[in-house]
Design a protein that fits this description.
Elements: E1 10-21, E2 24-35, E3 39-43, H1 50-57, E4 65-70, E5 73-74, H2 80-84, E6 87-90, H3 104-109, H4 125-137, H5 153-165, E7 171-175, H6 183-198, E8 204-209, E9 221-226, E10 229-234, H7 236-239, H8 242-249, E11 254-258, E12 261-265, H9 271-278
Parallel strand pairs: 3-8, 3-9, 6-7, 7-8
Antiparallel strand pairs: 1-2, 1-4, 4-5, 9-10, 11-12
Amino acid sequence: MPMTQSHQTSAILADRVSIRIGGVPILHEVSWDVPRGARVALLGPNGSGKTTLLRLITGYRFPTTGTMTVLGEELGQTNLDELRLRVGLLDPNIEHLAKERLRAIEVVLSGFFGHLCIDFDVPTESQIASAHAMLADVGLESHADQIFATLSTGEQRRVLLARALASDPELLILDEPTAGLDLLAREMLLATVDRVIRLRPEMTVLVVTHHLDELLPETSDILLLTNGRVAAQGSPSSVLTNEILTEVFQVPVTVNLTSGRWQWHVEPDIWPTLMQHSK
């Protein structure tokens, strides 16, 4: 049945969304209602449809059937440039797009304009002050004038977090935020994310990942995808079970919750079996 929840109380409202590309189904009848201010996660293995659904949410793809509403605006019926300025996105894939001459503060300022080229944009004094405040929030104010390319990967990621927060977004999306980071850099980023979102309880936060240890302790709802379909949706305790994750990820896993952090483990004695399946 169609969803009846008011668009104005939902940050993300996918109503039986399907996508076909070249006749091939990529997403099939996906429905998800994310309340404003919630901390949620989109989880699934590679090829499950996470990236396609993320492109829908950010307005870079449109549903073949069904409707997608973001921050009260239905895709296909709204100005996407204006909508994207209300959404902050931390995407590690854009790190290499920052020009080598850009300073950290300039990368953050680019968040006000929605692109990484600010040659023709003139930030206001208020925006400059806000960008410095964002760098202070992520612990990098002292690096404001450092060339972005010379920062460590972990520092670059925190600058991109500041960039995502620059325009005071209503929706913050973290797309596999700790990809490629070592243990210390990963934990520093997650600790920073946890702190800045606690200061913004009205902001909706979506983490897109296939790693349980990236889930925020405050995560209240998870959408688990597999093969373009919803495998499970609900609270972490109802979705992150050994049985469900073993079936979706196709490997026997043991799930643990320790001090608010979710983790999983695969016993090495399964490795010979996995190798047989790969042949």
